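Dear colleagues,

As part of the handover before I leave the project, I'm documenting each prediction I ran so the next person doesn't have to rerun anything. This entry is a single chain, and its sequence is reproduced below.
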Amino acid sequence: MKVSANVMYLDSPPAQTIPVILDSLPVPATFEEREMPRRARLQIDLILLAIEALDLSGSEAILTTASELELQDIIKNRVNLWRLRSANPLRRFSQRRSLSVVEAKALVVIASYLARRMTVLIRQLLLAYQQLSEKQLSMEHHFRLSDYLDRFRKHFRSRMNPRRSGVIAYTSDEKLNDLAISLLGELLFCTGTAGMQRFWSSLFDGEI
């Protein structure tokens, strides 16, 4: 049964039906914009990119989870999802349209749910990274971690615009590996009690 409520949001059209689950992500009182800041759009897309690198069916899982959480009115299909993620200014085909607060909430909820399902794997990879680093061994000594890093690098390079200054900083494998590992830590941050709220709040750091 669909659970929803008509809620008047300052950041959405008056008649829009907002899924109740999004109410758990309040907008800071001092944030007065209707659209998400640049850094938040970038961060949400990178988190989803890390999920896709962890899970071969990650893109499909995003859409499936949207349906399971009754967010399909916001994330309607694959094309719509691509347009939302193209609000990331570093994308090759970055959209001029921004990301509304409601759309950002939906993506944060989905990312957090998917991260929670992969908590064991994320912990295993972070532990493997720590152990390999302590022994000064390359990441190739752990197949699953090496596979994740390889897929993340390929996703990043195929989707981000190499002429953007924010992308030029990640031209080397080492820099991209560092980013991928950092995102693993952020995914772990999304799991557990109130992880979704912590991730959401972090998107406004330095913006208000």
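The chain is about 55% helix and 0% strand. Strands lie at 4-5, 18-19.

All the best with the project,
I.
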